[in-house]
DNA sequence: GCTATCACTTACCTTTTGGAAAGTAACTAT
DNA sequence: ATAGTTACTTTCCAAAAGGTAAGTGATAGC
């Protein structure tokens, strides 16, 4: 009986570690979280908007990051019927669940900046 | 008056973006969050404990990551008076503030794994 | 015809990350 | 003397990440 419970707890623990690693994998790199945070402030943004607002990113890298985010169901890509063509990117409902991560990162960053100012 | 407020809000916004980027910089890479999470479960761990429990990490990489975490005030390194020498690593009080980040990553990972199982 | 805009793509290159394998230094136990 | 333990370090290398600069294709306005 306690053995079953141990197994369940072990399985649950393993699952949590896998989930943790998946999250890190999904959001890794210099830009992905920054892009998600940017999209969370604006509902939809065009490629050019992102290029201008995600300071420092180049079109090549932006394009690659957007493709990966789309593949992982975190953003949607919509071609608009405009001339010249524009393309709108938006967070999926699912991606909105990354908000706690982003907020936690900001909170920690603020604390860290205060910490290193102490010296 | 509203201008001052705008400036304050802008400054605050900039500060939050800097904080966000600092956090990402501090915790980037394949291993750092994993190491922090591991240390959060055990109070202190020796180099060898970490090598065994952070599955897949090599001594070279572990050593480098620990040095960076120490430099950033996230862990402490203590040489123990044992034979052969052992070295204990522990989270700083400050690093314990990363817990919300780790929990948020686990939560999102769990949701993501459910999402992709749907298909 | 020429220029401009948008959303990319391509080629090339440098830097960073991280892994494999072996070695080292200090010390203990046999 | 030799083998074992701990905590690393060193060398060498491959892959990934990311930047620069230029180009492409569709279309519109002048």
Automatic annotation (TrEMBL), chains A, B:
Record flagged with keyword Ribosomal protein: no
Residue ranges of the TM segments: none
Keywords assigned by UniProt, alphabetized: DNA-binding, Transcription, Transcription regulation
PROSITE patterns tied to this protein: HTH_HXLR (PS51118)
Entry-linked InterPro entries: HTH_HxlR, WH-like_DNA-bd_sf, WH_DNA-bd_sf
GO function term, MF aspect, one: DNA binding
Taxonomy, superkingdom: Bacteria
HTH hxlR-type domain location: 13-117
Name of this protein: Transcriptional regulator
Organism, scientific name: Chitinophaga cymbidii
